[in-house]
Write a structure and sequence with these properties.
- The chain has helices at residues 3-14, 42-45, 48-62, 96-102, 112-129, 166-169, 179-182, 189-203, 211-220, 232-269, 288-291, 307-319, 327-354, 359-362, 366-390, 395-417, 430-433; strands at residues 17-20, 23-30, 33-40, 72-76, 83-88, 93-95, 143-145, 150-152.
- It has 434 residues and is α+β, with helices and mostly antiparallel strands.
- The protein has a five-stranded antiparallel beta sheet.
- A hairpin with a 6-residue loop joins strand 4 and strand 5 (83-88).
- Helix 12 runs antiparallel to helix 13 (327-354) and helix 15 (366-390) packs antiparallel against helix 16 (395-417).
């Protein structure tokens, strides 16, 4: 017996059968070796129509060369028409549910979440291209290869749609199935978008779904299929773009934060100098021409209007006589969107940076100041992305404007603090400095 078989023997003794939607996944010893099997529940194994669907799904799986698709062979008993089990290709597998219950810290391993999501997306896109939907991405229906945590899929839900037993198959895991599927409608690519998004949300359950993914997951899990992403490929693209935008924003604002920390330290240890009057930089003006049509973003919706309400108003203006809107008109709306972003982000940045530049925090030492700065940086990036989207601004533009506003407010905060901040250093007397 080799090492892998020894490990498998131990695992078999530990847990012989694992419940999956179609039956029980387990290992069976044949001729001294352990093989993988899924033993179907009686309601399915006795159903001749199920056997036909299973054979068709076996053919589908055989056409998928992706390593994340498991292949199998149907097993009948005593020449009967029914199929009681399938023999799954060799390997040491467990469900994702098992993995996270036994080793919850795996989600913190480098690239685990990213690779799991990426591999599932790629395989599902391939399945959808062949007209097949996975339907169920419940943790109990997604397998993992034990030695490298590589994700695997086995049976495909859409192959069994005509059986009309989804309510039985997916009992207790309905939360991972698109609502229209549970209503008996034919699964579509949008159904897989829903299931994948629910699975992504599950993976982040312990650490919390990142802010920059929340709006994507919210759209992907909409009750109305038409409100979701049209395909898994579109969903995948949205995830990639949002992650790239977030990383870019973090890098941009991180650079500013580091520069401001260094500037603050320099400001603190430099000998007192004569104070000069600070002149607040003039924000980019909005031309009178843009306000002639009766839409002033700073007053039209009221001081309490949030970004979402303002963005909705802009869209309503855009919808009016949309066939007559020319490029000049579009530029005008873009300028108004920028003005909205400046107003909203300035308010939020002032609030966030006030938590960094205050007498209590400044007197707490360099480490305390850096911790507050890092926390503020994260919040600033999130606000930049959120308000940029609401104002329909390109990410590059919202990052640039956000950087300008942060610099302006930071300089103003430092001047307002006067000689109060010491950034962890105690200033010496003028005699000491001389």
């Amino acid at each position: 017996m080799n090492f892998e078989e020894l490990v498998e023997t131990r695992d078999v003794r530990k847990s012989n059968k694992v419940k999956m939607p179609f039956g029980y996944f387990h290992k069976r010893q044949i001729d001294g070796k352990y093989s993988n099997f899924v033993e179907f529940v009686d309601e399915l194994s006795d159903n001749i129509l199920f056997a036909e669907c299973l054979k068709r799904d076996c053919e589908v799986a055989a056409q998928i060369s992706d390593k994340h698709q498991l292949h199998f062979t149907p097993n009948s008993e005593g020449g009967s028409d029914g199929i009681y089990a399938i023999a799954v290709e060799p390997g040491n597998y467990l469900t994702m549910e098992q993995l996270l219950n036994e080793v919850p810290s795996v989600v913190a391993q480098k690239d685990f979440l990213e690779n799991t999501i990426k591999d599932l997306l790629q395989l599902t896109i391939l399945l959808n291209e062949k007209g097949v939907q996975q339907v169920c991405f419940a943790p109990s229906n997604v397998l993992v290869r034990k030695n490298d945590n590589g994700v695997r899929l086995l049976l495909h839900g859409s192959s069994f749609q005509r059986l009309g037993v989804y309510d039985t198959l997916f009992e207790d895991i309905e939360a991972y199935i698109a609502p229209e599927v549970m209503r008996g409608e034919i699964p579509t690519d949008r159904s897989d978008v829903y299931g994948l998004a629910k699975f992504v949300d599950y993976l982040y359950a312990s650490s919390g779904l990142p802010f920059y993914l929340k709006s994507i997951i919210r759209k992907a899990t909409s009750e109305n299929p038409e409100a979701r992403y049209a395909s898994v490929a579109e969903f995948s693209k949205a995830l990639s773009q949002r992650k790239a935008t977030f990383k870019s924003g973090v890098m941009s604002i991180s650079a500013i934060a580091i520069a401001l920390i260094l500037a603050g330290l320099f400001f603190a240890i430099t000998p007192d100098t004569e104070m000069v009057e600070f002149i607040k930089p003039v924000e980019e003006p909005i031309s009178e021409e843009l306000l002639d049509e009766g839409f002033d973003p700073s007053t039209e919706l009221g001081a309490a209007a949030d970004s979402a309400a303002i963005a909705k108003a802009i869209k309503e203006y855009q919808m009016k006589d949309s066939d007559k809107i020319d490029e000049k008109k579009i530029r005008e709306f873009e300028a108004k969107g920028e003005a909205i972003f400046r107003k909203q982000f300035s308010k939020e940045a002032d609030r966030i940076l006030s938590g960094v530049y205050n007498s209590k925090n400044m007197a707490g030492g360099q480490k305390s100041f850096e911790q507050a700065s890092n926390k503020a940086m994260q919040e600033l990036v999130e606000k930049q992305i959120e308000l940029g989207e609401h104002s329909s601004l390109p990410s590059e533009k919202s990052q640039r404007i956000a950087s300008e506003i942060i610099e302006q407010i930071t300089e103003r905060k430092k001047v307002e603090m006067g000689d109060k901040p010491n950034y962890g250093y105690q200033k010496g007397s003028k005699e000491d400095n001389n």
